[in-house]
Every structure is written in C-alpha cells, then in structure tokens.
Amino acid sequence: xxxxxxxxxxxxxxxxxxxxxxxxxxxxxxxxxxxxxxxxxxxxxxxxxxxxxxxxxxxxxxxxxxxxxxxxxxxxxxxxxxxxxxxxxxxxxxxxxxxxxxxxxxxxxxxxxxxxxxxxxxxxxxxxxxxxxxxxxxxxxxxxxxxxxxxxxxxxxxxxxxxxxxxxxxxxxxxxxxxxxxxxxxxxxxxxxxxxxxxxxxxxxxxxxxxxxxxxxxxxxxxxxxxxxxxxxxxxx
Length: 237
Hints:
By secondary structure, this protein is of the alpha+beta class. The chain has one domain (11-234). It has helices at residues 37-50, 52-55, 63-76, 104-111, 141-144, 149-152, 161-173, and strands at 23-24, 56-57, 83-85, 88-90, 96-98, 115-122, 125-132, 180-188, 207-217, 224-234. The strands form two sheets. It has a seven-stranded antiparallel β-sheet with strand order 1-8-9-10-6-7-2. Strand 9 (207-217) and strand 10 (224-234) form a beta hairpin. It is globular, with a radius of gyration of 17 Å.
C-alpha cells in the first residue's frame, strides 16, 4: 500500500454536484500535471512493470484508436512541462520516455497521471475497447474489458436505466475539441490509489477520494476517451 496525498482538491471539485453533473472542459484540460505527479508516476511505473495484466489492456483491434489518443496527448504535453524531441519525451519529473506506437497506452501510462479508457460505439452503446487503469476505485479492468457502458456500471446502485440513457447520450453527443468533465467524491479508510476492490471495511473513513473524469472525442476515429485523474486528501477534522 502506498499513501500519496494531495494537499487539497482542485477548487472546482470542492462543491457538490449530482451525478453525472457534467460541464464543459477546455480542449487541453483533460490532461493535467499536479503536485503529486512524481509520486503518482513512480507508482504507475511500478504497477505497469509488476502487474501489467491487471492495469493495461490494449488489443490489436483497438490499436489505431489508441494511437490517435497518444498522438492527441503528445500535442498537449509541451504546454504542461514536458519536452519532446522526436520519439523521446522528457517528463516533468526528469524521466525520459520513448514513444512506442505499437504500445500507445503503455506509453501514455508512463507519461501522464490520468488513467485512460478508450471506448468505441458498437450498436447502441459505447464499449470499452482498451485502457490503462492503474488507479481503479473498486473495479477490475479484466471484468470490464470489451463490455458496454451499461455493463461497466452494473454494480453502481444509482446507475438505473434512466441514468444509463443519459450517460450514453453524453458519449454520443460529445464533440471533438469540446470535452466534458465531471467529478465524484467518496470517503475511504484506505488511501491506496490502486484499489480494484475496497479493503477498508471497519476502518475509519479518514480520506476523501475524488476522481476528475473527462469525456473526450477523438477527431479521426471518433472513439471516446474517458480520462480519470484521481486525488486523495486527508479529510478535515
């Protein structure tokens, strides 16, 4: 278990919103670098090295969409403290990452704090077709891979048919260059970022875990990215 805490939540995430509570997002704001970048990235690299099967899924069938996500991200990174020289990227923590177009989500997992889920429209719903998911909150990538949105959210009590339709309309309607974002906040007794299953039963809920989630349309493939930036703070009082 690793404890990596933010000093506070971003100002826009301190208030309460009702699920799904979406709002417009700046075109470049689905990726952020914050004060925990070095610590979170060190943990991500450890998980990708030691548990790749649990945190990374990028099948050949989704490779083109994933490459587009990496390409779009690389275009944003220089304004966020990264330096790109050809196929080499120097990160804000000083690491150098070689871009691997055969493993685009593996590359993104070594560059950015956000978890990245890639979804494509199949029939009436968007389906999870690839992901790098190092910091899950009570879900396992292997159990959600290749499943539609309605199945992905099955354990969520509030996710009824009406909400499922609203979320699907959101994914259908998001436009390239005009991302949307929302956030959630939950109390936890365990501060570990990597929690495919909760393990804080009986513990005092000393921590607040919040996810800043962005929905981003890719302009060429029309795939949708669901990016997740996880924050954990010590609860006041």
